[in-house]
Amino acid sequence: MDFDLTKEQEMIRKEVRKFAQSEIAPVALELDENEEFSPQLTEKMGEIGLFGMFVSEEYDGQGMDYLSYIIAVEEIARVDGSQAATIAAGNSLGIGPIYYYGTEKQKQKYLPKLCAGKALWGFGLTEPTDGSDAGGSKTTAVPDGNNWVLNGSKIFITNAACELSMGVTVQTVTGTLASGKPEYTCFLVEHGMPGFKAVPMHKKMMWRASDTAELYFDEVKIPRENILGQKGDGFRQMLTTLDGGRLSIAAMGVGGAQGAYEAALKYAKNRVQFGQPISKFQAVAFKLADCAVEIECARNLLYKACWLRDQNRPFGKEAAMAKLYGSEVMGRVVNHAVQIHGGYGLMKEYHVERFYRDQKLLDIGEGTSEVQRIVISRYIGC
Q: Catalytic one among 57, 294, 366, 370?
């Protein structure tokens, strides 16, 4: 067993951490307060290679392993969940399906811009009445000559309504299988297609500086060549995409927990009460010790899942475990961090307040904690 990172992975951690501290940290509070997505910051993240990290170089990707990408997400999340969400969704959910299932023409058309951070792509699965039930989608697509006509809506879609948004992968119902269940097919829907509308969602508790959208499809004509993969492959594509996406959510949990823990540790060492730093009091020291232990466990679980993926071995169970545990560990860590900060932990200028809000999405997005437990229980034979 070798737990050492490669020199390249260590360099990625160092450089991404440096970028996050110098470019993201100074503006994170303002962007969160104003609920403002920053295209400039997104393009800067593209310039240092944070999009398309696992995509081969022939499509202008970085050609790295998945763990390197996860380390980058972790380091961005250590500073700001909103920017980490842009990176995670942009790669796992936006670029991933096109890279793994797209035709050569589709890859050549979309991936270079997406890998450069010059454009973003959404992942249209969740609907107003169907979130955890990924097999309950009601958006439809019916054939019309050389086109398909889409009708329906999606909600809570990241990277789908900002000025950099190029399009979205949409799961639709295209028929009924012999079993009586719906047949699902995914389509690549570009912005500008008549009848397609993306509306930004505001007044969010968390990830306030990331782009979240509602999508509406009203008789949208899609060329047949915009089918992703084969007709009927949509549900399998979506579930496989979610397996990889869960690793990025787990990375956001580990990174966010690390950032909140470091802030709490620093504060505890400097905050003096009763004549000594509060880090010397057992009640506080034990909280910090528990945080350190749980972060270490979550990171090792996440890295093992990434190792399995990079070895082309089954990783679905481990991805669900890493997502579940990483999300809930961050919840416990940010709770301790706010408590250690006391009243200051409730104030926006102390960043643990933002970490506390951002964490809650991790228990919900990419499959709720309850769904992860269902997935895990099936893997273990329940």
A: 366
